User: Fold these one by one.
Assistant:
Number 1:
Amino acid sequence: MTPFDYARPIDAADALRRGAIAGTAYLGGGTNLVDLMRETVARPERLVDVSGLPAAIEETEDGGLLIAAAVRNTALAEHRIVRARYPLLSRAILAGASAQIRNMATVGGNLLQRTRCTYFYDTEGSRCNKRQPGSGCDAREGFNRIHAVLGGSDACVATHPSDMCVALAALDATVHVDGPAGPRTIPFADFHRLPGDRPDRDTNLELGDLVTAVALPPLPAGTRSTYRKVRDRASYAFALVSVATTLELEGDRIKQVRIAFGGVAHKPWRAMRAEAALLDRPATHQAFLDAAAAEFVDARPLRDNAFKPALASRTLAAVLEELAMGDAA
Amino acid sequence: MSLIVNGKQVHGPADPRVSLLDHLREDLHLTGTKKGCNQGACGACTVLVDGERILSCLALAVQYDGRAITTIEGLAGGDALHPLQAAFVEHDGFQCGYCTPGQICSAIGMASELERGVPSHVSADLAADAQWTREEIQERMSGNLCRCGAHNGIVDAIRATFATEASA
Ligand SMILES: Cc1cc2nc3c(=O)[nH]c(=O)nc-3n(C[C@H](O)[C@H](O)[C@H](O)COP(=O)(O)OP(=O)(O)OC[C@H]3O[C@@H](n4cnc5c(N)ncnc54)[C@H](O)[C@@H]3O)c2cc1C
Ligand code: FES
Ligand code: FES
């Protein structure tokens, strides 16, 4: 680890003042950043510890929820309103990492966690445009089982590893940000970026921007939702693919459906094509498979991950079928 | 800065780079807490902070200024083992013992999570109180690997210690 100064701000304004200086990183639970610093992938000169800022979960006037960035992952997953009204969010968080890590990890840090691409981590032996812009990408022709099949670029085929963010994408969450340019809100779909020729930038945040909260809109009554993760072992492993989905039926027709995939792209992948294909259609297994096919028609699998479109499609169909029958948890 | 480790106030490290794990082991010579992977993947370094289980390898010690840390050394009362320690002996909850301090601290943290109603990935009903089933314990302890494969004994020891008559 390279040396750094550590500061604990007294409030968000203090954090913003300190965070506006180049070379500074905000520190949440440290479960990703400490690891990246130890590997010298990240080399901040100053850490501003925002893990002690207020960590409230509040109901909003529109019937939604406002979740402060410092809320721990466990606290969010166990919150009674989240369990009752946003089960896909509880389930997504509980499917991630381990209990110890969820006790440490913050909502802000979960949003900003970086890819688990092994070439990104390998500072000594690998080229990585995300870690070192312009150096090249060893994943394209390398071991790329966990990499992207949608939205990748010549420069980068990394995936975003978060489970929680897949649920937030399906929920149309809004990210509250404060920074040198003042406070603003960013729709979840515009928060993370596709790699293009700037894979070093995971999100649309600018220098000094602090995530202050995440807002969830209410889900219409009668909406069912869940999260399904497919991984190499039953627990404590990152997703190969995952699906977060909400479904509202009218009779046997689909009135409203929202779908997001994890493990397939550089960002949580909101499946707009699949949603459009399902709207107003009867909720049948074939319709679900057709919708998934529409989403993955442009998939560009790599050497080791050609299984992902089919796996993600079958997972989506299985989950929607359970939701439609009313027996998914 | 200072920490309260097993009830005693101690100094924190001078260098903010020092992890809580290294501080416990190298500076305070509390070597019960183990370093397996040093990257969050094994759980050997699990300790309790104000009763909550965390990974000390991914924790910078400075972040825990003023907090109460409990390590494996803080569980027994003199020569009297903590009931969970005794249960690990009785149920063959270990072979080499390397993962054991982390397993035991983790299980104590898990017990309070389960008691306050935190659901898990395998809980069928998010609204219902979780039960002390094998499946629940296995999922909740998945952050602690055991290379000797003592997992079944570990689950037995945990159930014997914490499961109430109602759910045992
Ligand atoms: C072994 C292991 C397994 C894991 N498995 C999974 C898994 O299966 N699924 C999953 O989803 N995740 C998994 N994770 C990742 C884990 O969820 C993240 O490490 C965690 O969510 C990061 O949160 P943190 O608060 O610890 O962030 P930190 O490590 O403190 O910070 C992460 C990044 O966020 C930035 N940051 C923090 N807070 C803010 C803020 N308020 N505003 C702006 N920037 C901020 C930091 O500067 C840093 O760049 C795993 C991690 C480990 C170590
Ligand atoms: S040493 Fe901390 S998790 Fe392995
Ligand atoms: S007892 Fe040997 S690693 Fe668990």
Number 2:
Amino acid sequence: MSKPKIGIFGLTSCAGDQLMILNCEDQLIDLANAVDIRDWEMAKTNNDEECELDIALVEGSVAQVRDIENLKKIRKRSKILVAIGTCAVWGGIPAMKNDVPRDIMLKEVYGDKVEFIESKAAQPLSSFVKVDYNLPGCPIEKDQFLQMMASFLNGDMPEILNFSVCSECKMKENICQIVYKQEVCCGPLTVAGCGARCPSHNVPCSGCHGPIEEVHYDAEAKMFQRKGIKPEEIIRKMQVYAAPAWMPEKLMEELQHESK
Amino acid sequence: MKVVKLPKSKVEEFLSSLQDFGEVIIPKEKTEHPGVYYFDVMENPSEMAWEYLRTIIPPKKYLHKPREVIFKFHKEQGYQEVIEDKETKRILFGLHPCDIHGIKILDVVFNRDYMDPYYYARRKNTVIIGLSCLPDEKCFCKSMNTDYVEDGFDLFLSDIGEDFLVAVGTSLGDDLVAERAHLFSEVEEEDRRKYLAFRKKRNESFRLELDISDLPYILDLEQKSPIWDELGKRCLTCGSCSMVCPTCYCFNVYDTLNLDAKSGQRIKQWDACLFKDYALVAGGHNFRENRAERVKNRYYHKQFRMVEQYGKPSCVGCGRCIDACPAGIDVVEVLTKVREGSYVTH
Ligand code: SF4
Ligand code: SF4
Ligand code: SF4
Ligand code: SF4
């Protein structure tokens, strides 16, 4: 099999996921040998911006008007399109305050005259194009990224994890932030993959990998309220990373309902 | 059963000397979280948390590992079996009766009708030394008939004040004592009285009770009870209860591949019936699609099907799941309410 042609792109983002790929120092040579990186503006010169690609890895959310066209163009060139990082998968941090109109936000941040940026409410890639695989994380985990690439190289689709951070947290034998510290921990709602990074450092999970398939919003809301934690506090916490994934729906409704 | 006496003043020497045999695993206290315990390799006998009650994860983690490689494969070179810790001789020290019963149940599951070579390889190199305990408000081993052990250990230490009475359970245990004969002495009349007094005090200390008489029968009658839906509304299916349970043994098997595109390894990793994909099969059918069915399964497997299959429930009353559940679901409360036919979530 000839080497798959790869493109790596960033929309509106902090470039953290692309940096994570570069951080795979021990495996970078193996990776570079296994694939043919044709287009990666952040890491190399002489990019071919038109060629067809076997795999496109796209970081960032669609938060500027020009992101839409760029994304559609990438989709057209690529057999497999992968959303890498929570911004691409769920909207991420840029989507934290989608409820505030963009013009108000722009004015607050940049003052009256803003000409250089056409900002819009941040959305995940899947709102505009077909996404073949989602690799969440803020940033992505090296191991998960390499596993995913190895699966593609073997002509396979990577596994989709569908259990929460709690299981990894317990395997690490951490104390539970909810039980022992009455903290708002997003672990039960959040998809595994990080090895429970935050609780392993005695900090509650802030949900940076986004939700599992079957999130139990109402149970979570009721649980925190039984513990006397205010709905605003839960919302604030959960809004940080994957707001579009959980905010508009059930949780808000439940919390508002509960607080009455 | 032979019983000898070990003065507390000599117990650290005893612990150190066990390192001649192999790796010694003891309960330790988390420095940053007083009162929270975990099993770990002993560096120094002073680390031993004598007063510990339950660890976050039971000692099953040394026999049925959270995650292990079971073989490696290569397109040209074929496959190569891996059994992790195969050569490690290990002493699990300080196990309370519930955890010894937990291992006895795992032994039946992994070694009786079907031999699991990974579990077996580690199990046969494992020595078990038990330690007596006093229950707290989450212990209900007495109700589960797992508060004492007659077998399943090599040695068992009971605290009678100044000394430990050491019950010898196997010939290997006998060797461990004989090789260190200078540390032990004969049991005297006064020690017997102290032991009986300790036993009485312990029996009277249990605060949590669960009636398990004809429980499988009741569970069968309550298959359609609204309780299971109520629980389904409350449970987050986070799987914590299962991860920390000394008798939960489910695992998933999957491959991870390498970047050379021709090799990889097969992984065995803890799984739980609470997880959505647990009962998902090829073609997309899920046998327990519904959350309530998955929570219910945990109770029915432990208290109903295990009794049918092996003659005993697979709960040893250690209280770990009560401690671990972020949603505050309590196995004793649930089963009591099933029996009473009452359950209201709050
Ligand atoms: S600390 Fe958070 S992630 Fe860990 S078990 Fe508790 S709720 Fe789950
Ligand atoms: S514990 Fe939660 S917030 Fe921390 S890295 Fe993992 S998913 Fe992200
Ligand atoms: S079900 Fe709960 S109390 Fe029973 S053995 Fe498992 S963790 Fe312990
Ligand atoms: S620990 Fe509690 S919330 Fe989590 S799966 Fe078990 S019963 Fe459900």
Number 3:
Amino acid sequence: MAKITFITSDGETTTLEATSGSVMELAVQNTIQGIDGDCGGVCSCATCHVHVEPPFVERTGEASEIEKDMLELDDNVNEFSRLSCQLAITEELDGLILRVAK
Amino acid sequence: MKKSALPDPFEEARLQAGLGHINDQDDPVLMVLRHKDVRKCAHQWQRFQSGAEPGRIVVPSEVNIRKTRQIPFELDPPQHGQYRAVVEQWFKRPLEPAYRAALKVQIDDLIDEVLGKEKVEVVSEFSLPLQSRALTLLLNIPYEEAETWISWGTHVFRSEGEALDGDKAAILYDYIDEQIDQAIDNPGEDLYSVLLRAEVEGKKLTREEVKGVMILTFAGGRDTVINAVTNSIAYFADHPESLVRLREEPEIMGKAVEELIRYFAPLTHMGRVATEDTEVCEHAVQADSRISLCWASANRDASVFEKPNEVVLDRKLNPHLSFGFGHHKCLGATHTRQIMKILLHSLTEKVKSIQIEDRSENIEEWGQFNRKVGYHSIHVSFNSNS
Ligand code: HEM
Ligand code: FES
């Protein structure tokens, strides 16, 4: 079980729990504003862009080349950017805090 | 090679120069072929604009047959964003359960119909009706209206042998004018009425702007969807094992849809006009000349996609560009994805196998490249599951 907190761009905070799937799927199922997941998680739409709160960056790990290339040209990109469809939910992510980029 | 295969004609040029050349009505086009370059040029709207003379970013150019600016397609930021915002939510309606349920009924009925026939011409008897009926949901107008669009045939703008046909285009433009008149007299909850009520910066959209959105909605969503659906039928005819796999692993349906759309790339490329002297891929590009972003080539770039010429139904990383890239990315993608998901689902439920009888391939000619994009016609027989 992992607890994950989303902070949307208008400041709304939601904490959700899950054991499997991707962070994008969790957000879409719970209609977190700003995460649409249009492509279903195959790294082709960037509508699942989040900023990982700095203390958690080590736990979420590094993005793949393909993910980095996608992020590079997206709005609001910074060093904490990730595509949340590429974050698989595991115990390891318990407590994770994410800011929705859009 | 399998009958359903869509070969990649761009490979050699993509690896060597990264570019291709087309001469179109004395307004040449430099085709950008590599995934990275296509994305970069799509991103740099200040340098490569969409808001040129109406019709010019389309290849072959439509400047001689169209004066109406297509919106938001032929606008650049910041205007683009203001107009796109007017329709953005509307184009997400396909995610609503009622919309999906209605689409499912349409597609199930159509499949039942073709299962009852011995031989079916897929483009005119399956894909065109499917596309037209589904569009009534997107526009939120009565189902019967689809009959009019089906009667136009597959090419509203193009006719066999001729790249551009002003008379055919006029059918669509006159039709849209009439529909706008009707919506002015009898406003309702359809897309025409929504646009007529909409405002940008406190000002109502002009009639010409409403027309620009509607032309785009009809034109952008017709051949593309027809190609995607027809190619899907041909693919499953050649790959019955894929139908079995999707039946057994419905959880990969979303990935399969993205992969088929990557492989098909129903829209080969789209143009831009350079606003300054610049370069692409170390090649000089003059101000006011055209480039095109070749989505179809980018989708087969081996530096991004493993086994680019194979359909890998559960491809996990799939940054395909079939729906474009950046702020102009396809507004109809949500609708198209629902059509494709439901189509695949219904095929697995109802169809055991499909046989291709005969076919006439639609091969586009782009300068040195000949690209198969689909079929002019393809006869098949559908065999029922039950
Ligand atoms: C398989 C089906 C489709 C494909 C492959 C496709 C492809 C594309 C591509 C590549 C673009 C980007 C053009 C550019 O960057 O200049 C685009 C834009 C667009 N498409 Fe689609 N399209 C499809 C279906 C649809 C449908 C069904 C509709 C609506 C009925 C539609 C409406 C639009 C609109 C309105 C835009 C312009 C968006 C903007 O400029 O902001 N498309 N499409
Ligand atoms: S859901 Fe499309 S890139 Fe993440």
Number 4:
Amino acid sequence: MEKPTPVHGESRRNFIKKTTALTALAVTPGALVKAGENHESIASFFEKTPLKMEINGKAVEVLVDPGVSLLDMLREQLGLTGTKKGCDQGHCGSCMVLVDGKRVNACLSEATDNNGKKITTIEGLADGDKLHPVQEAFIRHDAFQCGYCTPGQIISAVACIREGQAGSEKEIREYMNDNICRCGAYPNIIAAIIEARDSGKKI
Amino acid sequence: MNTEKIIPPFAEDDDRVDGIEKVTGRATYTADFKPANMAYGVFVTSTIARGAVKNLLLHEARNAPGVLDILWYQNCPALPGYRPWAADPQKKGFEWRGLKIFDNNLVHYFGQPIALVIASTWEKALKASALVKAEYIQETFEVDFDSLRKDPSRLKPSGEYKRGEPDAYKKAAFYVESEYHMPIETHNPIELHATIAVWEGDKKLTVYDKSQGPKGTQNELARLFGLETANVRVITRFVGGAFGSGLRSWPHVPAACIAAKLVNRPVRIQLSRRQMFTMVGYRPMAWQKIGIGAAADGTLTGITHHAVSNTSRYEDYREGIVNASQFLYECPNVNTSYKILPLDINTPTWMRGPGEASGAFALECGLDELAHKLNMDPVELRIKNHAVLHPQSKLPWSSKHLLACYDKGRELVGWHQRSSVPGQLTDKGRRVGFGMGGGVFGAYRGNATVKAVLTAEGKLTLMSAVSDMGPGTATAMVSIASGAMQIPASKVSFLLGDTDFPPGPTQGGSATTSTLGGAVSIICESLRDLLKEIALKQVTGFAGLQKEDLEFGKETLFSKKDNSLRISLGDLVKATGKPQLELVKEAGPNPAVMQKYAMNSFSAHFVKLAVDMETGAIELLKVVCTGDGGKIVSPKTARSQMIGGAVGGIGMALTEEALIDLKTGRYLNDNLGSYLVPRHTDVPYIDTWFPDIADPVINPLGTKGVGEIALVGFAAAVANAVFNATGKRIYRLPIKPAMLI
Ligand code: FES
Ligand code: FES
């Protein structure tokens, strides 16, 4: 049996600090006052980097501290807690999001590296109350138990189908190998992906 | 027999009731909550395996940006539950189990929390935690299980059992005698353990916690902090897997509460993946020796099973490793012994199929070895020694459909292709083998209280303070209630995960559906009765009829005598003049009935695999898991549970092994990149099958539970298939390619 190879070894502690006081100075005074009220000292505020992104179709402006990962920015600052932290080391896949259409481990991506990018999280897949076909297939095939890995599995599954990597079952398994499911829903996840792939719906 | 009647579950559609929340990211797990003004705690952990903290140099960390305070033993308040003798007499009997975090400066293992840095953001706490420097007094430590277990003076006896003649297997015409080794296995649910503590003044505490039993956590915290139980609220809306790691409150739970008090703000602690190895338990290492003897026709004449597993030096942990050997098969002479070995590592705990899963590896491999010696089919050997009465108590089983499992399992895996001579079958140059292993676990039922609310719109809401780590408790309960009340599942909801609801059981030991489902059945019975009474007394047209004349169907109550006489459940509520009907009921087992029976769930796992003899690579080709869990309440989620157990078994058999460095006492592979859990490419399609026959005794539903039997015996099936493919017996898990070439 093939052992999965850890694909990303980098720890978030090794992040390179890219923030500079210069970028912080570009922030409007209004935001400055707000940050002050927010119990953050002005000094630490000047370390923050302002970012603009499109998240789930909406333009978002956010100020982040140095070293904050895309994952923690989404979860702690924007309240988008659908994306999960399972390891913070790139090993589990529960933090997968789409960045400009490509799947990315949000725990390994520094928030500041995503300036100007388009991000899709699990919250952005459904169209209002209408679930995305992959979400529907996951429910129908019971492709989860606890549901904690599920946002990451679904994002990966969407990328898998969109990128044309969902040919054979073997191919799907290989592609999905970065996403651990400790509840062991693997066979149902594969069945769900195949159904969604063959549904004829736009993925 | 049970006097409560069996109500057939009814599912108009068995999708999970919380499926939409889970696939949209709306399901809220502990760390998804963020009370206003919340601070973050990050642990500093010990870098020695035994000794004491002489001093912590905190200056730099304290002055780091965002740091609010640092909690360690020097500024930790005295907690009533740490010193039960000093507290009021009513606390007698309670003392916080295990590591008393920040109570003193002792270090019991590498990675033990010795301080908690609390800061305004997680990044700031993390950064500052790296600035704390510790000075230690070091002592020598011991973590070498394989050599220390051989020293009898270090072992704590933990139970002996004897029936008939000890070591009788040695006199048998055919016998086997082997030693089996299992490494530490960690639960490692994908959700990291987390706790958020919120104080309201000094007397009221709300805790969000990843717990398999919110009620249990509430009780532990109330006693630890000397609070009224009602003033401690525990919220656990969703649990991202646990497999046993959430069965007790670990030291980070009180740490969050103490920290929140210290900084006067809510505090969240989320463990790191590394800390998931050192702070929330694991399945202990185990050494086992098993001897099994049989007559030439396969009749077992003796089983001897000895086991040693590790515990920590600050707390004893025991599990039923040798228990199944005492009763799973008919055998006149059985003796077992179990001992534990304290080591300088953290305390182990229950992990899926605790005890039985480790024991079954030895017992079921031993039987396979014996079958080979006897030149007998391993399934036939088990059938030959099938126990009809429980061999210890001589009681009948409340239900046992294990023989049907053997039959169906053989059929589904294609057992007839199996060659009794190893190494005969090949596929594309690889050797192919078949193997099987059996499993057993106790079937239990406890007490639970459920509240039911029926509204004038005919909507039914049930609630109980349980949590669900994944099996689908709410889904099963909705299915039961919707069947009993004849209301579509979409109009029934089950609320859980909050101690403000009536007390429900801890989710463990495969007993949730039995315990809670039993209570849901009972409360539905009462509700049906109440609704009938209301109709007879308060609804015109029903007067003069008897309760027996009335029946429920399609969200209405109707007269069996005159089908046109019917009233919707919502209108029945309106007839009372109240906005809704409320009922609270406690239900539990009837001990007088229960003690007349032995109660267990059973499983039989079948595996077909291929081994590449050049590389030693193993590929699972076919997996079939059959399980007698009584009546299956929710087929879809039960199948998922069974598959999940098999995947756990694949990990136990082939990938999982937490390694401790003998030189430092630290875990060597404490991350998911090197502690390998099964991934997509490790798992084939898995077939599941249940006899699905109601147990007439255990509860009104007849359900026994499948959570543990899904795993117990699986690793043996893999090891036995490896033998059948290669002729090599593997006695040490996990099975690695290097062992096969
Ligand atoms: S949290 Fe990002 S891969 Fe695990
Ligand atoms: S559903 Fe629990 S980890 Fe995948």
